[in-house]
Amino acid sequence: MSKYLLDIIKDDMTEQDFQAKLIKQYEAQGWYVLKLIQCNKTGMPDLILTKPDEVKWVEVKSAKGRLSPVQEYRHAELRARGFIVDTIKP
Question: I want to staple 85 with a disulfide (CB 3.0 to 4.6 A). Which of 1, 19, 63, 75 is the partner?
Fold first, then answer.
């Protein structure tokens, strides 16, 4: 786990709080961050991170959270198309 993630993690942090702090960290690193609220495809990752000529998808989970089968499918689908897909937990 990278140092910047360790700096924002707290033991009692909810997934929502963790995601909000994670978004701020990514933006501080120069990423333009979009949070998907509703999409025409189920199981898509929570965040889309963009920089010029670079796109990364990020799924945010709680410490005990797991990917659902449809999320695993979508992540594999995105990777097959050449995208970076990360799952981040506190």
Answer: 75
